[in-house]
Design goal:
This protein is of the alpha+beta class. The chain folds into 2 domains: 223 residues, 2-Layer Sandwich (Endonuclease, Chain A), CATH 3.30.870; 244 residues, Endonuclease, Chain A. 34% of the residues lie in helices and 17% in strands. The chain contains 16 helices and 20 strands. The strands form 3 sheets. The chain has a 9-stranded mixed beta sheet, with helices on both faces. Strands 11-18-17-16-12-13-14-19-20 form a 9-stranded mixed beta sheet, with helices on both faces. A two-stranded parallel ribbon has the order 7-15. A hairpin with a 3-residue loop joins strand 16 and strand 17. Helix 1 packs across helix 2 and helix 11 runs parallel beside helix 12. The chain is globular and about 65 Å long. The two termini are 13 Å apart. About 13% of the residues have low confidence.
C-alpha cells in the first residue's frame, strides 16, 4: 500500500468515523527510531570475472561481436519477469543484492525467497534493502530472513512502532508525516555484479500476473555487462547510508515469530468465516484450503517455476547509463527537507546532471525532435512537466502519454491530480490514452507475447517507460508526477538503442490501439473517451468503467488533495 493509497483509505475511513479519527490524531505521540545504530559497511563484488554469470556475459558479447559493453533484454510478460529473477538467483555464486520498495508475502515471493535462502546456504552473500512502508502484518514476515546465515536485510527510512498493521504504525508516526511521504521507490535485482534487473515491478503475486483481486501490467529490463557496475554502485550508496537500518535494530526474531503465529491464527479464522473481508491493506492474496489447486492452475497459466535460460536470450548490446536519485533526496533525521542532485548519466553525454531522475527525464524531453512516447501509471504533471510538454509540441514533437484510467488505477485518488490537468494537456497538444481495466485487454497490452494475466478481472498499469525519437529508451521505477520528482527516490536505465526502442514502441502502440481509451475534446470542448480498436465498445462521455460512487467521492476529496501528495 503506497502512501497515496493510504490517503485513499484514510479519506474513506475519516468520512465514516471522523470523530474517532480526530481523537487518534490528537492523542498519538510520535514513536522514536533507535540511535547510534551500527551499520557495518559492505560493497558489491569487485569483478564478476570467474563467476558463471560473468563468463556468460563475456561469451555472449564476443559471440555478438559487440562494441558496446552492456547488453539488454526487455522483460515484458510475467514468465520472463519471474523466470529471469529465478535464473539470477540460481546462477549467483558470490553475491545477490536486492533493492525494493515492496516485497509482499505471497506465493510467488515465497518461491523466490526460498531460492534466495538456498543461495545463501551455498555461500552466496545476500543483501536485501527494503523500503519500510510495507513491512507490516503478513508482509513483515520476509524480515525473518535477516536472521538466516549469509543474509542481511536493511530497512530504508523506517517508521517506528509495531508492525501488526500498516494503518496502526502510520498513526503512531503521524508526528513525522514527512517520513511517511518520502519513500525509497528504487527497484534492483543484481547477481554477482554481472547481471541485474530494474524497472517497475515490486515482488509479489500482483506483479507476476496471478493476483486474486487484480494484476499490474509492468515492464522490466535485464541488464548485463558494464552498466551493472553502475547499478551496484547505486545499491552500495543506499546500503551504506545512515537512513538504512539493519532489521535487528528495529525488530527481534522473537517479535517476528509472534507475528507469524498471529498471522497464521488470523488466516485460520478468516478461512473459517463465510464471506471473509479483503485484507486490510487491499493487496491481492493467494487463496488457501480447497482452492489451493485452483490457484496453482491459474498461476501455471501465466508462469511456471522454471528459471529462464539466460544463455539462449537475444541480448541487445548498446551504450547505456543509469540515472538515480541520491539517498539524500530523503532527508536524514537531523536534516531539513530538500533534494540532492541525481547521479549524472554518462551515456554519450545524452543528459546532463539534474536535480532528480525526473529532472533528467525532463531534459530528455527537451531534446526530443520528432516523437515522444511515455508510459506513466501515476501521471500528475507539475509546472516543469507542463512546460516541457508544451515546448516539445511547439517544436513539432508528437507527444503520446499512456496512463491509468480511473477504473484501472489502484490508487484512484492519484487520478484526481491527473484529471485536473487533463484539459490543459490536451490543449497544448499532448495525446492522452487511459488504460482499460478489463481483463480482456491485458493479453495485448505492452506486447505480452500471448501471455495472459489470470486471477482477478482488473488490470492496472504499472510500467514506467519513455521512448525518445525512436532511439532512446528509458525504463525505470519513476512516474511522471511530483511525488517521484520531489519526494521518492527513483532509478532508471537510459539505453541508446534503435532496436530496443522499436521493440518497446511496437508494444506500446499495440496497447494504445487495443487496450486504451483515447481521450479527446469535442468541438464543444467536452471530453470524450474513444473506445479501443476492436473492443466493440462505444465511446464514453465520462470516466469509463468507473462507478458513480467513485466518481462522486473523488469530486469531494479531489479539491482537498494537493498534487504533491498524489
Amino acid at each position: 500500500m503506497h502512501p497515496r493509497i493510504l490517503l485513499d483509505r484514510l479519506s474513506t475511513a475519516f468520512g465514516q468515523a471522523g470523530i474517532l479519527g480526530a481523537l487518534l490524531l490528537g492523542l498519538t505521540a510520535c514513536a522514536q527510531l533507535p540511535q547510534d545504530v551500527p551499520r557495518p559497511p559492505s560493497r558489491a563484488l569487485a569483478s564478476p570475472e570467474g563467476t558463471p554469470l560473468g563468463t556468460l556475459v563475456q561469451q555472449r558479447r564476443r559471440d555478438a561481436g559487440a562494441r558496446s559493453a552492456s547488453g539488454f533484454l526487455l522483460l515484458e510478460g510475467p514468465q520472463s519477469a519471474y523466470g529471469s529473477r529465478l535464473a539470477l538467483v540460481d546462477a549467483a555464486r558470490k553475491t545477490l543484492d536486492l533493492q525494493y520498495y515492496a516485497i509482499h508475502a505471497d506465493a510467488s515471493t515465497a518461491r523466490l525467497m526460498r531460492a534466495v535462502r538456498e543461495a545463501a546456504a551455498r555461500g552466496v552473500r545476500v543483501r536485501i534493502l527494503l523500503d519500510d512502508f510495507h513491512s507490516t502484518g503478513r508482509n513483515a514476515l520476509v524480515l525473518r530472513l535477516a536472521f538466516e546465515p549469509n543474509i542481511e536485510i536493511r530497512l530504508f527510512n523506517p517508521l517506528a512502532g509495531a508492525r501488526a498493521s500498516a494503518l496502526g504504525r502510520v498513526v503512531s508516526s503521524l508526528g513525522d508525516a514527512g517520513r511517511i511521504q518520502q519513500r525509497m521507490h528504487n527497484k534492483l535485482f543484481i547477481a554477482d555484479n554481472a547481471m541485474g534487473i530494474t524497472g517497475g515491478r515490486n515482488l509479489g503475486d500482483a506483479y507476476f500476473g496471478h493476483g486474486d483481486a487484480g494484476n499490474f501490467v509492468d515492464l522490466d529490463v535485464l541488464a548485463s555487462g558494464e552498466v551493472v557496475k553502475e547499478l551496484s554502485r547505486s545499491f552500495d550508496t543506499y546500503w551504506n547510508n545512515e537512513r538504512a537500518y539493519p532489521v535487528q535494530s528495529l525488530v527481534s526474531r522473537e517479535a517476528l515469530d509472534r507475528l507469524r503465529d498471529e498471522v497464521r491464527a488470523e488466516r485460520e479464522r478468516r478461512d473459517g468465516a463465510a464471506n471473509a473481508p479483503q485484507p486490510p491493506d487491499g493487496e491481492p492474496r493467494p487463496v488457501d484450503g480447497a482452492d489451493r489447486a485452483q490457484a496453482a492452475a491459474r498461476r501455471a497459466a501465466v508462469w511456471n517455476q522454471q528459471p529462464m535460460d539466460l544463455a539462449a536470450q537475444p541480448f541487445v548490446w548498446a551504450p547505456a547509463a543509469m540515472m538515480v536519485d541520491r539517498p539524500a533526496k530523503i532527508p536524514a533525521d537531523e536534516q531539513g527537507a530538500g533534494t540532492a542532485p541525481a547521479a549524472p548519466p554518462s551515456a554519450q553525454g545524452e543528459v546532463a546532471a539534474g536535480e532528480t531522475v525526473v529532472d533528467g527525464l525532463l531534459q530528455l524531453i527537451g531534446q526530443a525532435r520528432g516523437d515522444l512516447l511515455i508510459i506513466s501509471p501515476y501521471f500528475v504533471p507539475g509546472p516543469d512537466m507542463m512546460k516541457a510538454f508544451a515546448d516539445a509540441v511547439r517544436r513539432g514533437v508528437r507527444v503520446r502519454v499512456l496512463t491509468n484510467s480511473l477504473a484501472s488505477n489502484d490508487a484512484p485518488i492519484a487520478h484526481v491530480g491527473y484529471a485536473r490537468h487533463r484539459e490543459a494537456l490536451l490543449d497544448v497538444g499532448v495525446a492522452l490514452y487511459e488504460m482499460r481495466s478489463e481483463q480482456a485487454t491485458v493479453g495485448s497490452a505492452l506486447g505480452a507475447s500471448g501471455a495472459s494475466v489470470t486471477g482477478g478481472s482488473r488490470a492496472m498499469l504499472h510500467s514506467k517507460v519513455l521512448v525518445v525519437d525512436g532511439r532512446l529508451l528509458v525504463v525505470g521505477s519513476m512516474n511522471l508526477d511530483l511525488r517521484s520528482q520531489k519526494q521518492n527516490t527513483e532509478v532508471a536505465l537510459l539505453i541508446r538503442s534503435p532496436q530496443l526502442s522499436k521493440q518497446a514502441t511496437q508494444s506500446i502502440e499495440t496497447a494504445l490501439r487495443e487496450g486504451a481509451w483515447h481521450v479527446e475534446r469535442t468541438d464543444g470542448g467536452a471530453l470524450v473517451w474513444r473506445a479501443p480498436q476492436g473492443s466493440g465498445l462505444e465511446d464514453a462521455r465520462r470516466e469509463p468503467d468507473a462507478s458513480l460512487g467513485l466518481r462522486l467521492l473523488l469530486q469531494l476529496i479531489g479539491p482537498l488533495a494537493p498534487d504533491e501528495m498524489l
